[in-house]
Amino acid sequence: MKKDELSLSDVFKCTYDKFDNGVLLVSAGSDGRKNIMTIGWGLIGILWREPVFMVAVRDSRYTHELIEETNEFTVNIPGDDIGEAIKLCGSVSGRDHDKFKETSLTAVAGKNVQVPIISECLLHFECKVIGKTQATPEKLSEEVLQSCYPRDDFHTLYYGKILSVYGEEC
Ligand SMILES: Cc1cc2nc3c(=O)[nH]c(=O)nc-3n(C[C@H](O)[C@H](O)[C@H](O)COP(=O)(O)O)c2cc1C
């Protein structure tokens, strides 16, 4: 059963475990364009006295463009039943695909952000960007540069204040 509000400690392990197979990041443009992208990297913690979800989005992604416009995103933790959707959202771009339509996933209005959540997912984090940093060559070790950036397609790390987390404890 879904709960209206959960604590971060209730959901931390489940969220961490799900990252292995990809979780779903939703973004939207200022005119309501909405998009889903699969992410495999992220952190939850406390920063600047706030609970924060950090996501790493390469600058080439459509998602990057949309987060830049609205400074908001939601992170949605899937169950085991939407593997195909995770694959699609991680392999095509919202620039030329309507991923909500193609996956038949349902966008539901967020409580505290303009960006929707995905109702089929178990858990939802609503986040407002309160800081961002650029992963650039001089800030990274040679090992990370070689393994993660062979094409110089660097990430922006977005620090989203967690405004609310709700759904099913897993
Ligand atoms: C399992 C998995 C994890 C991924 N993790 C990330 C990630 O953390 N950051 C990122 O920028 N791209 C990641 N990607 C790639 C994007 O999901 C993919 O390029 C997507 O098509 C971008 O969509 P967009 O252009 O609509 O934003 C991942 C893909 C998969 C399959």
Molecular structure report:
The protein is of the alpha+beta class. The protein has one domain (8-167): Pnp Oxidase, Chain A (Roll). The chain is 23% helix and 36% strand. The chain has 5 helices and 9 strands, in the order H-E-E-E-E-H-E-H-H-E-E-E-H-E. The strands form 2 sheets. A 7-stranded antiparallel sheet has the order 2-1-5-8-9-4-3. Strands 6-7 form a two-stranded antiparallel sheet. A hairpin with a 5-residue loop joins strand 1 and strand 2. The chain is globular. The structure holds flavin mononucleotide (FMN). Flavin mononucleotide is lined by residues 22, 35, 37-41, 56-58, 61-63, 90-95.
Helix count equals 5
Number of domains: 1
Overall morphology: globular
- Let me know the CATH homologous superfamily: Electron Transport, Fmn-binding Protein, Chain A
Bound molecules: flavin mononucleotide
The proportion of residues in beta strands is: 35-45%
| CATH topology heading | Pnp Oxidase, Chain A
The CATH first-level class comes to Mainly Beta
CATH 2nd-level architecture:
Roll
Ends distance: 10 Å
Can you write the helix and strand succession as a string? HEEEEHEHHEEEHE
- Determine the mean pLDDT: 96
The secondary structure category is alpha+beta
The parts where pLDDT drops under 50 for at least 5 residues are: none
Portion of residues within helices: 10-25%
The side-by-side strand order for the widest beta sheet comes to 2-1-5-8-9-4-3
* Gyration radius, in Å: 15 Å
How many DSSP-defined strands? 9
